[in-house]
Amino acid sequence: MKQPIKIAILISGSGSNLQAIIDHQKQHAKKYQIALVISNKANAYGLTRANNENIPTESIDHTLFKRRESFDQALQKIIDNAQVDLIVLAGFMRILTPQFTQHFLGKMINIHPSLLPKYTGLNTHQRALDAGDTEHGLSIHFVTPELDSGPVILQAKVSINSQETAETLKAKVHQQEHLAYPQVIEWFAQGKLALKDNQAWFEQTPLSKPQQLHRLNDLSI
C-alpha cells in the first residue's frame, strides 16, 4: 500500500483553513499526512490548532532577518529537513523570493481570495465591491515566482448582493475555501495534479480553465 504523502502548511494567523484541512484529513483522507505546520508569527493561533492535534510545529520570526532572502533560506532549510511532498500556503502573509519558489516549483500551492487574474495582492473583497462586481470568489493555484500569478487549479464563486460588505463577502468566501482547499490537496495526494510547462494538469490533461467547486462531487473519489 502506498504511503501517504507528507505536507507542510504555512500560516501567519488564526489558521481556519488549516483547521479545515486537519478535519478533512481525519475524516476523509488517508492519502496525506500533515507533517509540519510553520508560522512566521509565534503567537499565531494556528499553531495552537496544530498542537491540539499533536502536529509538529515550527515558528520562525521574519523580523529577526535583515533580508527577505535570509528568511526564505532559513524557511527552506526547515522544509527540506522535513522531507515533505507538498507545501500548502494557508494565510501565510509573506511574499516569497523567486529562489524559494523555484526550489519548490510544482510542490507548492496557495489559496487566494479572488477570481484570479482579478485582484492580486491584498484587500480583494473591498476591491471587488468597489468595482461593482456581481460575483467574487477564490482561486487555488500553483505558486510561481510572480505574485498570485501561478496556474490556477480550482476556483469557487460566490454572488455579491446589494447589501454586501467586505466582511460578509469575506465570510462567504471563507466557507468555500474550507471546502475547496482540502479537495485540491487530496487531488495532489492522489497523483491527479501536476505542474508542467507553467500549466496546471489534472489527470494527465492540461487544464484549459480552472476546475469549479460545484463539480467537486463529480471529481472526487
Class computed from helices, strands and strand pairing: alpha/beta
Shape: globular
The percentage helix is: 25-40%
Unreliably modeled segments: 215-221
Q: What's the β-strand tally?
A: 11
CATH architectural label? 3-Layer(aba) Sandwich
Tally of separate domains: 1
Strand content: 15-25%
- How would you name the CATH homologous superfamily? Formyl transferase, N-terminal domain
Q: Which CATH class is shown? A: Alpha Beta
In terms of quaternary structure, the protein is single chain
Question: H/E series, N to C?
Answer: EHEHEHEHEHEEHEEEEH
Chain-wise SSE layout:
Elements lengths: L4 E7 L4 H12 L4 E8 L5 H8 L4 E3 L8 H15 L3 E4 L8 H6 L4 E5 L11 H7 L4 E8 L9 E8 L6 H24 L3 E4 L2 E4 L2 E2 L4 E2 L3 H4 L2
Parallel strand pairs: 1-2, 1-4, 2-3, 4-5, 7-11
Antiparallel strand pairs: 5-6, 6-7, 8-9, 9-10
Helix pairs in contact: 1-6
